[in-house]
Every structure is written in C-alpha cells, then in structure tokens.
Design goal:
Keywords: Endonuclease, Hydrolase, Nuclease
Strand content: 35-45%
Helix content: 10-25%
GO biological process, one term: mRNA catabolic process
Number of domains: 1
Number of strands: 7
CATH architecture: Roll
Order of helices and strands: EEEEEEEH
GO molecular function, one term: hydrolase activity
Family: Belongs to the PemK/MazF family.
Pfam family, one: PemK_toxin
C-alpha cells in the first residue's frame, strides 16, 4: 500500500461526528506493522464548508463513483484489517494539495 492510494475502508461505528462506516479513504502513510494512516472521504459536499478539506471528482484513475471530499481534519490511524479493497489512486497534484493542507492543519 502506498501514499495516495484510495481504498474502501470499514471504519466501523465511532459515535460523535467522526466519519464512520464503509467509505473510500486516502492512504497517507503505511505505518510499521499492522497500522496505516488514512484520511476518510465523504460524498457529502456540504463538508467543503469546513477548513482542511479537498474535493475530488470521480475518475477511472481514482475509482470514485461520486464527487467526494477528503476530510483532512479526520486524519487517523487504522488497523490494516479495515482496508477492504483498493479502488484507485490520486495524481501528484492531488497528493500535493492534500499534503499542503495537512501541514497547515498540523502547523508544520
């Protein structure tokens, strides 16, 4: 698994306002062992009103079926067992846009 890949993940139920359930997610880092870092996506375009979000349009390359929002502020580590299927990958421009937003959000 590599940075920029898009996978269907089963986050499960989390409660509160965290993204949950089965959804696409962008892989950010393949962490040591059985854990990886992802950013969940949502098809709810209203999420663009929040800071630290990036919109993706569906394409054959990324495998998305709908316009989606990468919800960067919901960055999280998950067990690799929650990764169900690779559906596509992002281009260098999209990865860079997400990287810039992540750095801004984290203050680095």
């Amino acid at each position: 698994m590599k940075k920029g890949e898009i996978w269907i993940v089963d986050i499960g139920s989390t409660g509160g306002h965290e993204q949950q359930g089965i959804r696409p997610a962008v892989v950010i880092a393949d962490v040591v062992g059985s854990v990886t870092t992802i950013i969940p996506c949502t098809s709810n375009l209203d999420s663009l009103r929040f800071p630290f979000t990036v919109q993706l349009e569906p394409s054959l390359k990324n495998g998305l079926s709908f316009a989606s929002v990468v919800v960067i502020f919901q960055l999280r580590a998950i067990d690799k067992k929650k990764l169900k299927a690779k559906i596509g990958f992002l281009g260098k421009t999209e990865i860079k846009e997400i990287d810039v937003m992540m750095k801004k959000m984290l203050g680095i």
